[in-house]
Amino acid sequence: MPAVRNVLVVGGGAAGAAAAILLAEGGVSVDLVDAKPDVAALGSGITLQGNALRVLRELGVWDQVAAEGYAFDTLGLRAPDPAGTLLAELTDIRTGGADLPATLGMYRPALARILIDRATAAGAKIRFNTRPTGLSAGAGAVSFDDGSTGRYDLVIGADGIRSWTRRTIGIDCEPQPVGMGIWRTFTRRPPSVTRTDLCYGGPAYIAGYCPTGQDSIYAYLVEQVQDRSGLSAEEKLATMRGLAEAYHGPWDEIRESLTDPATVNYTAFESHLIDGPWHRGRVVLIGDAAHSCPPTLAQGAAQALEDASVLAELLLRHDTVTDELWQEFTARRLDRARTVVEASLQLARWLLAHERGDVPGLMGRIAHLVAEPA
Question: What is the full DSSP assignment across 256-281?
Fold first, then answer.
C-alpha cells in the first residue's frame, strides 16, 4: 500500500504533472491545481537532456514526445566571425541510456499539453484557474480561492520559482539574480539546423539555437542583464535582431525569420537552492520551488522531472511517510541538485568574467553524473 492515499499537487508544470502521473498510476488519489488558465498556453522552446527523456519514458509519454520533438546527438561550437565558422562538433553522452537520444528539443507548450493529458488519463483530477489560499503543513489542510477546502496526506509544492507553497511553509530561500538576461524566440527551422550550436563571445555571452520540430526552432541570445521592461514588443524584436547581427552561419537565416514581435521575450537569470530538507510536515517542494539555476547546462526540466520520479517511487514503495523516507529523498536529491546548480552558476560566472574556464570538462562531469539514474 502506498505511503499516502490522497495528495494535492500545487502547480501543473513538468514536476507537478510528472508527480501526478506517477502517483495516480500507483493508485493514489491526486488533485492538481494551477493558477493559470492553461499551462500549455505560453512558452517557446525547451531543451531536454537524456536524463529528462528517461523520466518521460517512465511517464509513458516518450513516443508522443519523440514524435513532436527533434532529437540529436551532437553539439556544435561556432565562432562569432563573419562565416559563423564551425569550430568543433562534439558527440554528446546519452545520459538517458543508449536507447534514447542525447538531446531533444521541442515546443514547451506541446510538452506541457502531453503531460497534463497524461495526468488526466491516469486519473488525476485537475483544476486550472485555482490557487490555494491557506495551508496547514502539519494537518495537510488546504483552502482554495474558489471557496473549497481539502485535507491531504501530502501536499506537493511544484509551483515554480516564485513558489507560494515555499513561502507559506516558512522556507526563506528566494531566487537571486545571476547577472544575465536571455532573449528567446520561437521561429521556423532553417534546413541547416539539425542540432544545437553554441557561439561564445561577440556582443552576447552565448548565441544558440535548438531545433524543436521538423519546422521549428528555439533561438536565444544571452546578454548582461538589463531592464528591458520599458521596451514595446516591436522594440524587443528590433533589439534581438540587432544583437543577432553579429552572428552568422545559420543565424543569417534565423535572423531573417524574426519578424513577429509576439515571438520574442526577455527573462533575467535567477538561481536558488534550499540547502536542507525540502519538506515541512505534510508538505514537500520539488522542481523550481526547491531549486533553480540558469539554463547554461539545460538541466532545469531534467532535475524537476527527477525530483518527481524519486518522490513518487518512495511514496509508492513505503507503507507510511516516515523520517526514513524523507532522509532517503534528501540523500538522493539534494547533493545531485546542488551539483547541477553550482555547475550551471560556475559556467555563468566564467562567461560574466570573460574567463576561459574548462567548459567541456564541466559539461562532461555533469553528463556523467546525470547518466546515473537519480
Answer: HH---GGGEEEEEEEEEE--S--EET
What SS3 class is residue 111?
helix
All domains of the chain in start order, with CATH: 6-73+99-175+271-371 (3.50.50.60), 178-269 (3.30.9.30)
What pLDDT does 38 receive? 87
- SS3 state at 104: strand
Residue type, 240: M
pTM of the model: 0.96
Q: What angle do CA 119, 125, 131 make, to 5 degrees?
A: 105
Round to whole Å and give the CA distance between 193 and 116.
30
Task: Please give the grid coordinates belonging to residue 139.
Answer: 494537518
Report yes or no: 307 and 273 within 8 Å, Cβ to Cβ. no
Residue type, 192: S
Q: What angle do CA 350, 356, 360 make, to 5 degrees?
A: 90
Partners of residue 30 on adjacent β-strands: 7
pLDDT at position 26: 98
The whole-angstrom distance between residue 31's C-alpha and the CA centroid of its chain comes to 22
Distance CA 371, CA 374 (A): 9
Q: How far apart are CA 313 and CA 19, in angstroms?
A: 10
SS3 string of 23-58? HHHCCCEEEEECCCCCCCCCCCEEEEEHHHHHHHHH
- As a whole number of Å, the CA-based R_g of the chain is 20
Length of the chain: 374
Q: What pLDDT digit, counting tens, does each position of 145-183 carry?
A: 999 999 999 999 999 999 999 999 999 999 999 999 999
Angle among Cα 206, 159, 324 to the nearest 5 degrees reads 105
Name the average pLDDT for the chain.
96
Quickly list DSSP for 154-219.
Answer: EEEE---TT-HHHHHTT-----EEEEEEEEEEEEEPPTT--SEEEEE-SSSSEEEEEEEETTEEEE
